[in-house]
Design goal:
By secondary structure, this protein is α/β, with parallel strands linked by helices. The protein is built from 11 helices and 5 strands, in the order αβαβαβααβαβααααα. The chain has one domain: Rossmann fold (3-Layer(aba) Sandwich). The protein has a 5-stranded parallel sheet, sandwiched between helices.
Length: 248
Amino acid sequence: MKAEAVTEYLVNWLREKVEGAGASGVVLGVSGGVDSAVAAVIAKKAFPDRCLGLVLPCESQVSDLMDSQLLLEQFDIPYHIVDLDNAYNFLFTLFESYIKVDGQVGQLLRANIKPRLRMLTLYYSAQARNYLVLGTSNRSELMVGYSTKHGDAGVDLQLLGGLLKSQVYELARYLEIPVVIINKVPSGGLWPGQTDEGEMGLTYEQLDHYLASGQGDPEVAQKIEQLIKTSEHKRHMPPIADIPGDIV
């Protein structure tokens, strides 16, 4: 991959989309992970004075907060920290007062409140500034639906959606993202010990190889194809019932 050319393309693409929408700039959530770090640096290149990073801890690891601040300060990206702990605790307590689910399903239900709270916060900030919300999901995640609908998938633009996870790492090294961010285990921070690969049941190496070549271990290929199929609804706007004219 030609990292310099890809970076230049994404900078120009971002400017074109934002200006075409009549917006002034972009806001994005910065998690301390490699994807949001790369997206933030490209956003800064595209809009030096009109990009904003939001650090949105929600029962998060302190190390993620520190890594986010390290990145934002190193690249002189304006940012705010909005602590969502109280809002999260209030909401899941309220929700569980009328329906409480135990086990892994319940854990995931509670965890998905976090990215949806972050989505609300990002759109509040974006609307106040006439900005667009910039997503940070990569192609590998989008293809298998590793995202929360109306959470981290609820954005205006997916800057990295054409890049495999391995290619995001290439860009990260080219952009000189802090090594501590590049080397950390990918995680959505949904609960203690949670990792991307553990939740997907696949390694990014397996996933990227299959998406790039269409080849892989039969069991891995079957799992990926099943994930692509069942997550199709996440990659499209909600279907509209097209009522025949003769019955309307």
